[in-house]
Q: What sequence folds into this?
């Protein structure tokens, strides 16, 4: 019996860690590389146990000095999802997904913790804004991967920052709380391709930042992306990465954010 | 042979997804829940193939509108790690780890993309700062989990923001690039415990933000954390979570950040 178990363990280990070509592929890496944004969902609710599992996993992400400076709001109520769908720039999948998570940076709880200890929080510095924003993002990525590992799919919603004041009213966010990013989750009812990323050498630098070869590589990447769109749309679309970026970045985006954040107590100094 | 393969596949599937009590535990969730900050490393380099694997996995994280607005700097050179170790607040493990990653928010590349398309980037708004910061954080969390799945351990270094101007000079960061967070990686030479997180109900809210029961729960959590420290330090330390938070948050932290970021082009509007 012992040796049978050993054999089974060997089999398990050998299937769990596979060499694909030269690359080590374990279950985690496989999952990460299989990520696609899912915007269509089966009409099937997400079990409460799975939701708890996703939130708990989010909580195990690292947090700056143990501050845990984020709150996750799980929206399942139809009417709230529908309103959010409009507020986030008419993204219908927010209304359609069974669970919409809003990852908020949260210094409000820390303000209360200071009160308990008879002191006052200093939260108005840019640093506290960064700290809580990064905390929320790390938790969100753990949530996304956990959801995907449970057979769900999802998409991040930056549009939660389109109308942050109205979103804050709707979700009753107090001062020192702001919605960093949203996330639709549900059982996938589509199977989109994943877009090729920038060449590794463009994104990864050894020891110091150096980018003298980047533009050459980005030119090749532009062609790759152009071909990708052409083959997916039967020639109808062929814009490159730099074209997309130029179109997005040559105008102001969400110019209200600074004013909104300051109204919530963030970024005062 | 076919049926043997089927049996092996069944064995594999049954080991890969286990029910532990009521909870579904797959490899990804197990890994996420096993996260601890590792600050001591074996004297063993990280293979270049693994580094590529970690960076590639980081790149598969979601990115706002495909901007991929981050750069990862992998520091292996002894002298640079030693300088960073001092600049980040005398954290010796930065010098000791075989690989120190610096996750930078990067709009510089998007500025270049705009130039290629004969247009000019509008990058000075707070929104672009959030977008690139979140992009960098999502990539970082994929990198951390991938590293852990490959047997490595690590710790995030917020101290990279202690002296961001000097870090920027050292790493030759151009305008529109700033170091969001650092990450030490290496083969673990310690086995620390993981600190209990806030109660799920404090961090997770249904449909809207509501916190009227939070302080009661945080009081219980304070006792839990206090007991945790007492048992780990044989009674020498017994501070609670609110005590820790009050101590951290009742003074200004990194007040230079705003000025530094504005000098780099961020947060102008």
A:
């Amino acid at each position: 019996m012992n040796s049978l178990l050993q054999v089974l363990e060997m089999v398990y280990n050998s299937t769990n860690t596979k060499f694909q070509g030269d690359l080590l592929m374990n279950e985690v890496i496989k999952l990460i590389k299989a990520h696609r944004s899912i915007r269509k969902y089966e009409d099937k609710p997400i079990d409460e146990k799975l939701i708890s599992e996703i939130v708990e996993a989010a909580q195990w992400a690292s947090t700056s000095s143990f501050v845990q400076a984020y709150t996750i709001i799980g929206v399942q109520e139809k009417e709230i999802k529908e309103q959010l769908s409009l507020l986030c720039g008419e993204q219908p999948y927010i209304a359609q997904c069974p669970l919409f998570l809003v990852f908020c940076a949260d210094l409000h709880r820390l303000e209360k913790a200071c009160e308990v200890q008879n002191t006052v929080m200093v939260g108005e510095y840019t640093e506290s804004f960064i700290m809580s924003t990064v905390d929320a993002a790390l938790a969100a990525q753990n949530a996304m991967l956990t959801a995907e590992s449970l057979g769900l799919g999802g998409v991040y919603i930056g549009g939660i920052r389109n109308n942050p004041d109205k979103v804050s009213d709707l979700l009753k966010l107090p001062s020192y709380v702001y919605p960093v990013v949203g996330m639709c989750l549900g059982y996938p009812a589509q199977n989109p391709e994943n877009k090729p990323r920038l060449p590794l050498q463009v994104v990864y630098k050894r020891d110091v930042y150096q980018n003298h070869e980047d533009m050459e590589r980005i030119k090749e990447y532009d062609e790759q992306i152009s071909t990708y769109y052409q083959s997916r749309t039967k020639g109808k679309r062929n814009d490159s990465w730099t074209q997309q970026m130029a179109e997005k970045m040559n105008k102001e985006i969400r110019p209200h954010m600074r004013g909104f954040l300051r109204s919530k107590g963030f970024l005062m100094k």
Remarks:
- Residues 14-23 of chain A have pLDDT under 50 and may be disordered.
- The beta strands of chain A are 18-20, 23-25, 70-75, 99-106, 153-157, 177-186, 204-206.
- The CA atoms of residues 110 and 121 of chain A lie 7 Å apart.
